[in-house]
Amino acid sequence: MKTNLLALQLLITFSSCKTEKKAESETEIIVIGTQHKPVPNFNSDILFDILEEVKPDLILLELDSIKFTPDFKLKEVKENELLASEKYRLKYPTTKLRPFEFEGRNQYRIDKGMRPTDGLTLKLIDSLYKADLLTASEAEIFKAYQDALEPLKVLASNSPKGWNNSKGDSLCEHRQFYQYQMIPKITNAREEFANRFVTKPNGEKISFRNGYQLWANFWDLRNRTMAKNIMTISEKNKGKRIVVLCGFMHRYYILSELKRRIKDKNIVLKEYYEN
């Protein structure tokens, strides 16, 4: 009887140690949606305090690798995320900073003709809307697109916890759906967008219609690439606590991609305020 009891105690102890070991080796990813520029309710000091609470081993930044030195020091420190991350790294020197952005995103958009066609297209739609020249269904789409921005303005005036949650993610997803999925229903149907052009850096012309569609497609490509980059870095830093800092409009997409990609992996997604 004593032998059986001892064996049971050893089994429980072994199982407990095994569970603790598994928990310790679990990789944590905390995606924090941010605002790049300081505003009254969000600045680098507020973000630094959040980092102090989370205590990450690694901070991933929405930057190209060209913004870093060869030993991964920041070349410029201006925006909220960079100021907070650099301050944190200086206080905790073992913390790593790494980029996870789609490499060369700005030049890529220019070279492909997404810019300035994106802004010019939206201005043209707005002028057609104000002149009452859109069809009823087109006007409904554009009004819904405009209206989707209003709750985001309210959201952005809250504390960071106010937009780092499922409700905030849903509002961002709704607005981006209209910008990248519904607006092309207008541009792909009207000849105004097929007959206006900009010239790309290589001298080729691209229509507003095609340029805007490329921009809409790039939203998916960019976010999926960023999520892929996050996963690649996470695989190389198993068992670490990783903070991902991104503009809060990207958060819903990145989280959705990460949830899909972490299946069957020892990775957990957490909110910064769950610690």
From TrEMBL:
PROSITE patterns, sorted: PROKAR_LIPOPROTEIN
Superkingdom, taxonomy of origin: Bacteria
Protein name as it appears in the record: TraB family protein
